Amino acid sequence: MDSTTIIWIIVAVVVVLAVVAAIAFFMRRNSARQAERRHAQAEDLRAKARESALAAQEVEARQAQARADAATAAAEAEQAKARAAQAEAEAQRRSGDIDGHAAEAAEHRAKEQEILRKADDVDPYVGNDRTTDASSPDRSATDSHRTSPHPGDDVRATTDARQDVRTTTDARDAGAHDVDARPGDPRIDDTGDPAPTARRSGTADRA
């Protein structure tokens, strides 16, 4: 081989090496760009994943809040039911107390009427021969005693009415005494008192 051939062979080898080096350089450069591009795509995907995770957390938080609100509403409903049951029980208890008070009041009223009846039986100024005017205050006092809200007022009204009855009875007795005490009546002595009369024995009457 001559020197010219050797030179061309060397030149060809150098050119081939240069081409290979250029191809390798461009391929490496493209590979780096592709890697960067793929890395950017991966970062975008990761960002989207983080956003999705945040959205999921927000949804889960709202779901937990909704569950808590539902539990609170259920607890409040149970408390309302408990309060309603307690109020109903309290109302029934108060109703029972009212019935008990009514029965007790009726018992006291019956005892009151019994005591008034006994008082009328014991009182000598209360009789069947009273005049209508004299008996009206007593009935009015009894009615006021039945309807008056204050027991002290009932007692005072009854006492005043009975004093009026006594005054009327005393006045009637005094009038009768004045009529009987006429001058010249042999049944009246000088002092104005009824004169004693001789009681005849049963034998004298039969004689």
Topology:
Blueprint: H1 3-122, H2 132-147, H3 151-180, H4 202-206
Helix pairs in contact: 2-3
Structure report:
With 207 residues, this protein is mainly alpha-helical. Among the domains are: 81-124; 133-179. It contains four helices and no strands. It has helices at 3-122, 132-147, 151-180, 202-206. α2 runs antiparallel to α3. The protein is rod-shaped and about 180 Å long. The termini are far apart.
The number of distinct β-strands equals: 0
Q: What's the gyration radius in Å?
A: 64 Å
Number of helical runs?
A: 4
Summarize the helix and strand pattern as letters: HHHH
The poorly predicted ranges are 129-155, 174-188, 190-207
Oligomer: single chain
Shape: rod-shaped
**Main beta sheet, described?**
none
**Helix proportion:** over 70%
Beta fraction: under 5%
Structural class: mainly alpha
Q: Could you tell me the mean pLDDT?
A: 72
Give short descriptive properties of this protein.
4 helices, mainly alpha, rod-shaped, 207 residues
